Amino acid sequence: SVRIPGVWLLPITAAPVIAEFNPPPQRWLAGHRGVDVLAPVGTAVLAAGAGRVRFVGDVAGRGVVVIDHGLLVTTYEPVSAQVAVGDEVAAGTPIGIIGAGGHCSERCLHWGAKRGAEYLDPLLLLHGYAPVLKVPW
User: Could you say which residues of the chain have pLDDT below 70?
Assistant: First the structure.
C-alpha cells in the first residue's frame, strides 16, 4: 500500500470515479495508469496534496500538470493550467480547469500517481479509501 504523509484530497470536489486504475501486466503494454474523475469542461482541478509544480505543458494535444510531492508525483490531464513550474501548492489549491484532449476530453480528469517509474493507484493516497476486491464468479 501507499503510505505518504500529509493531507490528500480528490482533485475534483464531490465527483465520482468513472474509470479505475488498471495497470498493464508489462510496463510497455496498454493499460489505465490512473483514475478518471467525472467533471465537465471548466471544472476546477485541485492539487491532491502539497508539493511543487514540476511540469506544465502540452503533451500529445492535452494540457498536463505534474506536481512533485517528494516521494511521488501526481499528474492531472487534460487541464488548462493556472499554475507555473516552481509554484508551491497546498492540498486543495486550484491548479487549473478541465480542458480538452485525450480520452478524458471535456468530460473528466485523468489523475495519476508515480513513485519513480512505478505507477500507483492514486485513490490509495486518500485517507479512508478502501478498495473493493473484485471476485471472479
Answer: 1-5, 127-137
Calpha distance 59→137 (Å, rounded): 40
pLDDT (tens digit, 9 = 90+) per residue, 110-134? Answer: 999 999 988 999 998 986 555 444 4
Q: What is the pTM of this model?
A: 0.87
Q: Return all residues near 110 (Cβ < 8 A) that are at least 6 apart.
A: 34, 35, 36, 75, 76, 77, 78, 102, 103, 104
Three cell numbers at 12?
A: 475534483
| DSSP for 106-123, written as a single string | TTEEEEEEEETTEEE-GG
